[in-house]
Specification:
Layout: E1 3-7, E2 12-15, E3 18-21, E4 27-31, E5 37-39, H1 52-65, H2 70-87, H3 92-103, H4 107-127
Length: 128
Protein backbone atom coordinates (compact mmCIF):
# COMPACT_ATOMS: atom_id res chain seq x y z
CA UNK A 1 0.00 0.00 0.00
CA UNK A 2 1.38 3.42 -0.91
CA UNK A 3 1.35 6.66 1.03
CA UNK A 4 -0.62 9.33 -0.79
CA UNK A 5 0.44 12.94 -0.22
CA UNK A 6 -1.04 16.11 -1.67
CA UNK A 7 1.28 19.12 -1.70
CA UNK A 8 0.14 22.71 -1.84
CA UNK A 9 1.80 25.05 -4.33
CA UNK A 10 5.38 25.82 -3.22
CA UNK A 11 5.11 23.44 -0.24
CA UNK A 12 8.34 21.75 0.83
CA UNK A 13 8.74 18.15 1.85
CA UNK A 14 11.67 15.98 2.85
CA UNK A 15 11.66 12.56 1.21
CA UNK A 16 14.46 10.18 2.17
CA UNK A 17 16.74 13.10 3.06
CA UNK A 18 16.05 15.12 -0.11
CA UNK A 19 14.34 18.48 0.27
CA UNK A 20 11.72 18.81 -2.48
CA UNK A 21 9.76 21.98 -3.27
CA UNK A 22 6.49 21.72 -5.15
CA UNK A 23 5.90 23.98 -8.16
CA UNK A 24 3.08 26.38 -8.95
CA UNK A 25 0.17 23.93 -8.78
CA UNK A 26 -1.15 21.40 -6.29
CA UNK A 27 0.62 18.06 -6.66
CA UNK A 28 -0.28 14.51 -5.67
CA UNK A 29 2.45 12.00 -4.84
CA UNK A 30 2.27 8.28 -4.20
CA UNK A 31 5.20 6.97 -2.16
CA UNK A 32 5.49 3.21 -2.72
CA UNK A 33 8.25 2.26 -0.31
CA UNK A 34 9.05 3.03 3.30
CA UNK A 35 11.27 6.12 3.50
CA UNK A 36 11.46 9.03 5.96
CA UNK A 37 9.02 11.75 4.93
CA UNK A 38 8.42 15.11 6.62
CA UNK A 39 6.01 17.76 5.45
CA UNK A 40 6.98 21.41 5.66
CA UNK A 41 4.79 22.00 8.72
CA UNK A 42 6.78 19.35 10.59
CA UNK A 43 10.24 20.49 9.49
CA UNK A 44 12.31 22.52 11.91
CA UNK A 45 15.44 24.26 10.67
CA UNK A 46 18.48 24.80 12.84
CA UNK A 47 17.65 28.52 12.86
CA UNK A 48 14.27 27.66 14.48
CA UNK A 49 15.90 25.94 17.47
CA UNK A 50 15.49 28.90 19.80
CA UNK A 51 14.35 26.87 22.83
CA UNK A 52 15.63 23.75 24.54
CA UNK A 53 12.72 21.54 23.48
CA UNK A 54 12.96 22.74 19.89
CA UNK A 55 16.62 21.66 19.94
CA UNK A 56 15.48 18.22 21.08
CA UNK A 57 12.92 18.10 18.27
CA UNK A 58 15.59 19.10 15.75
CA UNK A 59 17.91 16.29 16.90
CA UNK A 60 15.10 13.71 16.72
CA UNK A 61 14.23 15.04 13.26
CA UNK A 62 17.83 14.46 12.20
CA UNK A 63 17.66 10.91 13.55
CA UNK A 64 14.62 10.35 11.36
CA UNK A 65 16.01 11.75 8.11
CA UNK A 66 19.74 11.02 8.45
CA UNK A 67 20.31 7.48 9.69
CA UNK A 68 24.00 7.57 8.75
CA UNK A 69 24.78 9.76 11.77
CA UNK A 70 22.52 8.16 14.38
CA UNK A 71 25.28 7.66 16.93
CA UNK A 72 26.05 11.39 17.01
CA UNK A 73 22.35 12.35 17.15
CA UNK A 74 21.68 9.91 19.99
CA UNK A 75 24.57 11.43 21.92
CA UNK A 76 23.23 14.95 21.27
CA UNK A 77 19.74 13.88 22.34
CA UNK A 78 20.90 12.58 25.72
CA UNK A 79 23.04 15.68 26.27
CA UNK A 80 19.90 17.81 25.79
CA UNK A 81 17.47 15.61 27.72
CA UNK A 82 19.33 15.28 31.02
CA UNK A 83 19.46 19.05 31.78
CA UNK A 84 15.78 19.37 30.79
CA UNK A 85 14.75 16.67 33.27
CA UNK A 86 16.83 18.38 35.98
CA UNK A 87 15.23 21.76 35.25
CA UNK A 88 11.69 20.47 34.66
CA UNK A 89 11.11 17.09 36.34
CA UNK A 90 7.49 17.03 35.11
CA UNK A 91 8.82 16.35 31.62
CA UNK A 92 10.22 12.97 32.69
CA UNK A 93 7.17 10.94 31.67
CA UNK A 94 7.08 12.46 28.20
CA UNK A 95 10.87 12.17 27.84
CA UNK A 96 10.56 8.48 28.78
CA UNK A 97 7.97 7.98 26.03
CA UNK A 98 10.09 9.81 23.45
CA UNK A 99 13.20 7.89 24.48
CA UNK A 100 11.36 4.58 24.20
CA UNK A 101 10.35 5.41 20.61
CA UNK A 102 13.92 6.43 19.81
CA UNK A 103 15.34 3.20 21.24
CA UNK A 104 12.89 1.28 19.05
CA UNK A 105 13.95 3.36 16.00
CA UNK A 106 10.42 4.78 15.75
CA UNK A 107 11.62 8.29 15.01
CA UNK A 108 8.46 9.67 13.41
CA UNK A 109 6.44 8.66 16.49
CA UNK A 110 9.16 10.23 18.67
CA UNK A 111 8.79 13.47 16.69
CA UNK A 112 5.05 13.53 17.31
CA UNK A 113 5.65 13.14 21.05
CA UNK A 114 8.34 15.81 20.97
CA UNK A 115 5.74 18.25 19.61
CA UNK A 116 3.90 17.72 22.90
CA UNK A 117 7.13 18.55 24.73
CA UNK A 118 7.40 21.81 22.76
CA UNK A 119 3.78 22.66 23.59
CA UNK A 120 4.48 22.06 27.29
CA UNK A 121 7.56 24.27 27.09
CA UNK A 122 5.54 27.04 25.42
CA UNK A 123 2.97 26.87 28.23
CA UNK A 124 5.70 27.21 30.85
CA UNK A 125 7.37 30.10 29.03
CA UNK A 126 4.05 31.96 28.75
CA UNK A 127 3.50 31.73 32.50
CA UNK A 128 6.95 33.07 33.37
Amino acid sequence: MSLKITLKPHEKIIIAGAVVTNGEAKCKLDIHNKVPILREKDILTEADTDTHCRKIYYVVQLMYIDEKNLKMYHKNYWELVHPLIDAAPRTLSLIDQISEKILKAQYYQALKLTKKLIAYEEEILKSV
